[in-house]
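Narrative of activities, Objective 1.

The group set out to show that a structural description can be obtained from nothing but a protein's sequence at a throughput compatible with the screening campaign. Below is one input-output pair from the validation batch, recorded exactly as produced.
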Amino acid sequence: MSSILIKGVSLNGKTTDVLIKGNRFSRIAPNITENADQEIDGKGFAIIPPFYNGHCHAAMTLLRSYADDLPLFTWLNDHIWPVEDQMVEEDIYVGTKLALLEMIKSGTVFFNDMYGMVEESIKACEEMGVRAQIGISLMDRMGEESISGRFGLLHSFKSTELVRLAVAPHAPYTVSKELFERCVKEADKAGVMIHTHLSETAKEVEDCKAEHGMSPVEWLDSLGVLTEKTALAHVVHTSDSDADILAKRQCVIVSNPTSNMKLASGAFHTTQHRSRGSRVVLGTDGVSSNNNLDMMQEMKFFALLAKLTEDAESAPADYVFDMATRAGAEAFGIDAGVIAEGKLADAVLVDMSNERLVPDYNLISNLVYSADSRCIDTVICNGRVVMRSGVVPGEDKIIEDAHRVCARFKAMKK
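Output recorded for this entry:
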């Protein structure tokens, strides 16, 4: 069993040692003398939980800034879907590795994904040592042969220590009643989560009411989609009755403030859901609508957008930091998200000498409102160091490969 000993690191404002054995925190105490396979000098660093990205389209890194300054449906129909239809397996693999490099560099060790050719995403995650829930994306337009093949993969895949699958029907405007009901059945059979977009735009809500006589929340609830094992991305346009349903079902609501602002989709109703005890976590969405995967930035934007649209106390720093760390891990069934003995050893070391963390009156406030990825020195996932001193192994090759495959998309854009 491999081991890591972090000496003299700051945890909750106190200096301590942290011993990791295998993939869990074994002991947290001052002056640990036990030998370890790897020792890290923690002086001048604070150890914090890493980030858990609740909604992402990882390989979309290849489409960063491909189509900007557009509303959602124009962006999707006229620009994103046409180029995604041209993607091949290597694109997904290279794009996912680029996404993982960016996530690791900004302190993220897990993402809940929704994209195509999931075998390539799985391969990338295993190689880079990062956790993921990989959603098998489904839309009616894919056709029965493709849909059946994807459900077949769902049932043949064996979850690993780092990667599991989910059923990911895209959205109420791309998935029929019959396919949603099939997704519920197959997800239940496989014992996995459902991951979908919901109530992202006012148009989606209006169209759903016109077609089904119900809001998107009410419609999915009538189909049995909404449970504690359902992750719902965006959830921007909700009535009080919608919020009641989501709280009652204890769905995982994933807010994506940057993407929602960039696509002019709207602002999440923080108090409406927080006051009902709903499970709310943070996600970045895909790079083409963000345009990065930085959960630190997402924390700041969530907090500030809530203050702008509601009031100064609607989303305090402690609440937002918890959304991105502990609550995010818990929502996806990961026994992590806190630095504590017995928990899975996921952690980040932040450099307390970075100018954005000085002075250090309140570390959590600094992390939410001030810090950026330059503050992150070391990232540990599942007891393995995946970044040390700001360097991820193989990062130059990842960048080189991304430039190469993106040359084809650049030519298509002209």
